[in-house]
């Protein structure tokens, strides 16, 4: 009798943990109506606002899963164009299950901080997987496509409008770094993210961001 009870509670506990993991994943990839940035997709990456000032904000993101691909280039624009098409094929049926997967927002581009002015970089472009595919997702047919997981993290965020291009992204990354250095914030200086929320078809009220990963305690003075 005791053994049966122990087995029952073990099964119950494992099932409960699994359910909580699913709910956690779905809770942070949620309805786009909960975000003012996501206007073209059903689901969006959600976050908790830690603090903000006139220059930047600090956000907390839970760990989520993405489908990703790498592309080497001298310019982000060229790398993003090629990589976006590769990932778009994956979500429109070029996967082993042959299923269509809804587009989400945002799209992120992981950018290495260049050590040499004219050296090429490897850009990692990622699509956020919808909540239905956070736990179980079809395998890609292209060996250049793979899955990544961002950790539970805090990020420094600078927002800007217009189009996310090599020049605009670089300028806003430089401005955010300057603002963070001015307040002696610590952050990962090896790479940053260029983050876009809109399709090329959207002309007005576009929203883009630059992210730097927080290291240590976030610094967010009311005026920097």
Describe this structure in words.
The structure is a single chain. Residues 3-9 and 11-27 have low confidence and may be disordered. The strands form two sheets. Strands 3-4-9-11-10-6-7-5-8 form a nine-stranded antiparallel beta sheet, with helices on one face. It has a two-stranded antiparallel ribbon with strand order 1-2. The chain has 224 residues and is of the alpha+beta class. It starts with a helix and ends in an 11-residue tail after the last strand. A hairpin with a 4-residue loop joins β3 (48-52) and β4. It is globular, with a radius of gyration of 19 Å. The protein is 27% helix and 29% strand.
Overview in brief:
The chain has 224 residues and is α+β, with helices and mostly antiparallel strands. The chain is built from 3 helices and 11 strands; from the N terminus they run H-E-E-E-E-E-H-E-E-E-E-H-E-E. Strand 3 and strand 4 (57-61) form a beta hairpin.
Strands, total number: 11
Order of helices and strands: HEEEEEHEEEEHEE
Q: Runs with pLDDT <50, length 5+?
A: 3-9, 11-27
Number of helices: 3
Secondary structure elements and their pairing?
Layout lengths: L1 H27 E3 L11 E3 L2 E5 L4 E5 L2 E10 L2 H16 L15 E6 L8 E8 L16 E6 L2 E8 L5 H17 L8 E6 L11 E6 L11
Antiparallel strand pairs: 1-2, 3-4, 4-9, 5-7, 5-8, 6-7, 6-10, 9-11, 10-11
């Amino acid at each position: 009798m005791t053994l049966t009870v122990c087995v029952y509670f073990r099964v119950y506990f494992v099932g409960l943990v699994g359910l909580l993991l699913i709910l956690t994943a779905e809770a942070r990839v949620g309805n786009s109506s909960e975000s003012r940035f996501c206007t073209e997709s059903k689901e969006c990456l959600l976050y908790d606002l830690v603090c903000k000032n006139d220059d930047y904000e600090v956000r907390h993101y839970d760990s989520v899963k993405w489908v990703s691909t790498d592309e080497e280039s001298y310019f982000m624009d060229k790398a993003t164009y090629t990589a976006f098409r590769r990932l778009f094929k994956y979500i429109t049926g070029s996967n082993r299950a042959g299923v269509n997967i809804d587009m989400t927002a945002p799209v992120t581009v992981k950018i290495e901080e260049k050590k040499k002015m004219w050296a090429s970089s490897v850009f990692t472009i990622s699509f956020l997987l919808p909540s239905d595919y956070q736990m179980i997702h079809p395998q890609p047919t292209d060996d250049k496509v793979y899955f990544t997981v961002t950790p539970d993290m805090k990020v420094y965020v600078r927002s800007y409008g217009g189009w996310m291009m090599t020049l605009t992204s670089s300028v806003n990354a430089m401005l955010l770094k300057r603002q963070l250095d001015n307040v002696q914030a610590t952050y990962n200086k090896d790479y940053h993210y260029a983050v876009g929320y809109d399709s090329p078809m959207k002309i007005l009220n576009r929203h883009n961001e630059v992210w730097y990963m927080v290291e240590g305690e976030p610094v967010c003075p009311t005026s920097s």
